[in-house]
Design brief:
Layout lengths: L2 E2 L2 E2 L12 H34 L3 E2 L4 E4 L4 E3 L8 E6 L4 H16 L4 E7 L3 H10 L5 E4 L3 H5 L7 E5 L4 E7 L5 H18 L2
Parallel strand pairs: 6-7, 7-8
Antiparallel strand pairs: 1-2, 3-10, 4-5, 4-8, 6-9, 9-10
Helix pairs in contact: 2-5
């Protein structure tokens, strides 16, 4: 049986090729490079592109809550109007800074619904807080059902919901320019309402 350089000659006459360690390492490095590029592209899509695209397509969950004045607030009955839902809690220091701004916006924009949703507290605790801050249209979410449905994880969190029930804006935390942001949302969403009539 003859020998050839690079390996043994099997019975069929063809040389048996055994990949070298260097060739395996080169292929593995290429696959790792491809995998790294895919991971980076997925991360960019998930954390940069999709959040920007998703704001106009997310339907608001159902909202039906008791209000501090003894009534009920039902988002479904407000179809056709722009609604801001402002989630807050009395223990939240940033909320104490944000609430006066949001309430000022509500008083100066009577054509827009601004509903302050207290999360996780009972009416007896909410009432003196709301009176101190001269809050109107306060809804109660004592078991946080609606807060969880909207995915609220920090306070304050403000959602803008257009006349068709789609979430068109979300702000988390204290924003000293929240009134300007809310006004910009009104300007951006108002043409949609007139265009659909």
């Amino acid at each position: 049986m003859g020998m050839r350089r690079g390996g043994h000659i099997p019975c069929g006459g063809e040389p048996l090729r055994v990949p070298s360690l260097r060739s395996w390492a080169s292929r593995a490095a290429r696959w790792l490079d491809i995998l790294a590029v895919v991971v980076v592209l997925v991360a960019i899509a998930r954390f940069v592109v999709l959040p920007r695209l998703g704001h106009d397509v997310v339907q608001a969950p159902p909202v039906s809550l008791a209000t501090l004045d003894g009534g009920r607030y039902d988002l479904q009955q407000r179809r056709g109007r722009l609604v801001f839902l402002d989630f807050w809690a009395s223990w939240c220091d940033p909320c104490r800074q944000s609430i006066p701004l949001v309430q000022h916006f509500a008083r100066t924009h009577p054509g827009v619904d601004v509903i302050s949703v207290d999360s996780g507290e009972v009416a007896a605790l909410v009432r003196p807080f709301a009176e101190h801050f001269r809050m109107n249209d306060v809804a109660l979410d004592p078991d946080m059902t609606v807060s969880r449905a909207f995915g609220v994880t920090g306070y304050p969190t403000l959602f803008a919901i257009d006349g068709t029930g789609r979430v068109v804006g979300r702000w988390i935390g204290y924003d000293p320019d929240i009134e300007r942001e809310m006004s910009a949302t009104v300007a951006r969403v108002a043409p949609r309402k007139t265009a659909s009539l």
